[in-house]
Amino acid sequence: MDTVRTETGNDDRNDDLLSELLQPLRLTGVFDSRWHVSAPWAIEGDAEQGCAVLHYIVEGGCWITAEGQPPQELHAGDLAVFPTGTAHRLADRPDRQGVPLKAVLPERQPGTSGEIRIGGAGPESRLLCAGLHYDASAATGLYKALPWALVLDGSQVDREPLLRDTLRLLAAPDRPIGPGDRLITLRAFEMALVLALRPLLREFAENPASLPVLRHPGVSRALVMIATRFAEPWTIESLAREVGMSRSAFTAAFRALVGEAPARHLTGRRMQEAARLLGETSLPQSAVPERVGYQSAVGFHLAFRKWFGVTPGEYRAGAASAA
């Protein structure tokens, strides 16, 4: 799938799709680094499982390339986001062979920062780069279907003032450091990711063919229904009926476009919300099953344990001890 360069606008019809993409997706940690590079230079990044990657060009410019994809040139003020952590190269020229990122930044633990300095005799560039770690089990089918890279040019970033100002603050060499800095940085990058993906949703609203899953009205509608109405007593038959399809045709189309069966996708969304309620709220545990679409507490308990490997009570206790 090609890189998507988005066009911003005022259409907010896809709020439900934004929720489907991002509401269950919470960052668990961030590693960010500041790059000071002078040509010639090139760095090869490995694929990052459960990690979105962000590159913000502070000064100068670079090229991004990936296997099977056309090279993309970036300039000062541009932002590139790799939602699913696709392996890629950053370089001063698209044909430059690079050194592995792990050779120049061997330790990239979430919650820490790093710095790269590569000195050549050519033009200089400065970049803010970050690995945004998330729980891969919380990534929806629609999120996984996003293009390998999303690029916003400088003018598009400027039209999102909150995104622009957040990126500039995060890229500042004298970024404030103090109590709560790790959590503040985590949430700032989380906001930057949401703000960067919002223009992409506008692009999808205007051109659904740019994302295959949205070409199918029944499947795309079912995704939104599962994302926003997961507490209803859905069956595969009732979902198919709601979108005007037969059960077999709906199941086949959903699996082909989303990558998993509709029943598993529905269970996953319910488990994501259950985990949020148990880990982030004081809602009584006995009230959680009904809130996420289970009429039977025993059925919920068995499903939760199968999904997460622990009981709901153990999950809540673990979340409390980690807080």
UniProtKB/TrEMBL annotation:
Keyword DNA-binding on entry: yes
Annotated ranges, domain HTH araC/xylS-type: 220-318
Keyword Heme attached: no
SUPFAM superfamilies in alphabetical order: Homeodomain-like (SSF46689), RmlC-like cupins (SSF51182)
PROSITE patterns: HTH_ARAC_FAMILY_2
Keyword vocabulary terms for this entry: DNA-binding, Transcription, Transcription regulation
GO MF terms held by the record: DNA-binding transcription factor activity; sequence-specific DNA binding
Protein name: AraC family transcriptional regulator
UniProt source species: Streptomyces lavendofoliae
